[in-house]
Amino acid sequence: MSRYFTEDHEWIDVDGDVGTVGISDYAQGQLGDIVFVDVPEEGKQLAKGDEAAVVESVKAASDVYSPVSGTVIEGNPALTDDPSLVNSDPEAEGWFFKLSLKDAGELDGLMDEAAYEAFVAKL
Q1: Which of 36, 66, 102, 121 has a CA that sits 20 to 30 A from residue 51's CA?
Q2: Angstrom distance (rounded) from CA 109 to CA 93
């Protein structure tokens, strides 16, 4: 499995042709306490950069963008009952949605973990 990051602080874990998407630990830290998450429905078609989900915190509401194009397989149902999972485990149990990748070549434009850490260090 490979993990990639966007400059908008989304991450995507890729296993075969399935990607799991969430927001980074840095992003959840900037947002503060998460109080609501709206994840996309199964079957929704997303293009790279499309608004895919919404996350609301005590500080702000933010859109979560799709790092790649594809079709949503599943939204994380656990976030409906417990949006704080995004704060407590942002890069595992706090995932937002899974999608089938339309074009794995789009991953080439994303950062690996080391590049993302260097990117965040400059912020």
Answers
A1: 121
A2: 25
Residue with tokens 């950062």: 111
Q: Answer whether 0.90 is exceeded by the pTM.
A: yes
CB-based burial label for 58 (10 Å; 0-12, 13-18, 19+):
exposed
Average pLDDT, the chain: 97
User: 5 has which bridge partners?
Assistant: 11, 111
Q: Distance between the two ends of the chain, CA-based, in angstroms?
A: 28
The string of pLDDT tens digits covering residues 59-79 is: 999 999 999 999 999 999 999
